[in-house]
Write a structure and sequence with these properties.
This protein is an all-alpha fold. The chain is built from 5 helices and no strands. α2 crosses α3. The longest helix has 22 residues. It is elongated, with a radius of gyration of 21 Å.
Length: about 100
């Protein structure tokens, strides 16, 4: 499972770095990671309450379903620039006089 997760989501910091401006290249992946940790920090407490009320299996399955649905919604609503080119055009070499 870990190989699948890392294979699918391990490239996101690289993608964020490539999309960032040169002045923010070092900042964006780390900031996004830390904000993600901040958003999911109450997860352990919520899972404990669900575990006490419904049992371990239902608490884990409920969080898995919420995670999958959230990711699907974010990926579905995300914008894509299908015609965007990430290649910087090099300057054409000066034509030599023949």
């Amino acid at each position: 499972m870990q190989a699948g997760v890392q294979g699918a989501w391990g490239v996101i910091p690289v993608h964020l770095s490539e999309l960032s401006a040169d002045s923010a290249r070092g900042l964006m992946p780390g900031l996004a990671y830390q904000l993600g940790i901040l958003l999911v920090s109450p997860t352990n407490s919520i899972q404990y309450v669900l575990h006490e009320r419904f049992g371990y299996q239902w608490a884990m399955a409920g969080f898995e379903v919420v995670t999958i649905l959230t990711l699907a919604a974010l990926l579905w609503r995300g914008s894509e620039s299908h015609s965007r080119s990430f290649v910087r055009e090099a300057h054409a070499p000066a034509e030599s006089a023949s």
